[in-house]
Amino acid sequence: MFTRISELSIRPDKREEFLSLIHNELVNMLQKQSGFVDVTLLVSDTDQTRAVAQSFWKSKDDAERFYNGPTFASFLNKGRTLLQSDPRVHTYTVDTSTFHHIARGKAA
User: For position 107, what pLDDT does the model report?
Assistant: First the structure.
């Protein structure tokens, strides 16, 4: 399994609009993608401008197909106006997850 983590800096006056865009558009897009497993959005309880999004994929190829494709590019163009800067993105292979029933070093 593969995960992509995006650190987001939301414009202070655009928080609700940003969350609405995530809930109403991005989640729906992701659920239609081949290889998509799950998404988690974490919103800071001490800094209203900070959030972290984590998506889980069956493979790195599945994630790259979505994130490098036109559907996500269109979404990102809408979302950029709600952010203070471009997201900082990190990618990882999932080693262990009790939620996704992955034992250390074994794929789901």
Answer: 56
- For 95, phi then psi, to 5°, come to -90, -40
Q: What is the DSSP string of 18-77?
A: HHHHIIIIIHHHHHTSTTEEEEEEEE-SS-TTEEEEEEEES-HHHHHHHHTSHHHHHHHH
In which residue ranges of the chain is pLDDT below 50? Answer: none
How far from 29 is each of 23, 41, 74, 106, CA to CA, in Å?
A: 10, 15, 11, 28
- pTM as predicted: 0.88
| Residue ranges per structural domain of the chain | 2-93
Neighbours of 66 (CB within 10 A): 20
Pick the CATH number of 2-93 from 3.40.50.620, 3.40.50.2000, 3.30.70.100, 3.20.20.150: 3.30.70.100
Q: At what angle do helices 70-80 and 60-67 cross, to 10 degrees?
A: 60
